[in-house]
Write a structure and sequence with these properties.
With 182 residues, this protein is mainly alpha-helical. Helices cover 58% and strands 4% of the residues.
Length: 182
């Protein structure tokens, strides 16, 4: 982090590209040095933040092609994975890892293929995916976990002022926490 900060500060006026990725919630919860570095470089204009959204079905198809070059997956695989993961990259990768571990994705003579039809694949969260989510939640600060606990009871869509009232915190702070967690 010190090297990144030093290089980012010194090379700000030169044509230099350094690409780094992180999940904001992870940085906020467990890496104050990286948070300070990113905040400082952004404030100086020495860095730009590119927030990534969910993957589209086309992005997911491109991911599958990159991960399994020349695959012969049915066209319905990417939409099925997208529907199950809502395009969240972390879940997409984890679910594809699980499919590969269970040997639902196999390499045959003609290339990568599915061992069974898409309709027969178990795309429900398995222990691996649940453990991944549990690990991510454990890394959050208690106030953020409380926000997510309350929001999960409210459902897929909710109003942040309602969540703020239920957790007894300021609307603005809850809104910022939700934006960071999103």
């Amino acid at each position: 982090v010190d090297l990144l900060h030093h290089v980012g500060s010194r090379l700000a006026r030169q044509r230099t590209l350094i690409v780094g990725t992180f999940r904001q919630a992870d940085v906020d919860a467990g890496n104050p040095l990286l948070k300070r570095c990113a905040t400082d470089l952004l404030a100086r204009g020495a860095a730009r933040e590119l927030a990534l959204g969910a993957l589209t079905e086309e992005n997911l198809e491109a991911y599958l092609e990159t991960r399994f070059p020349g695959h012969r997956f049915p066209p319905s695989l990417a939409p099925a994975l997208h529907a199950r993961t809502e395009g969240l990259a972390l879940f997409v990768r984890s679910l594809v890892d699980i499919l590969a571990e269970r040997q639902d994705v196999v390499q045959a003579n003609e290339g990568w293929t599915l061992a069974r039809p898409v309709e027969e694949l178990d795309l429900e969260p398995t222990k691996g995916l649940r453990e991944l989510v549990r690990h991510q939640l454990e890394g959050l600060a208690p106030p953020e976990r409380e926000i997510l606990d309350v929001a999960s009871v409210c459902g897929r869509e909710f109003l942040s002022p309602v969540i703020a009232h239920l957790v007894g915190r300021a609307d603005r702070q809850v809104e910022e926490d939700l934006r960071r967690l999103g």
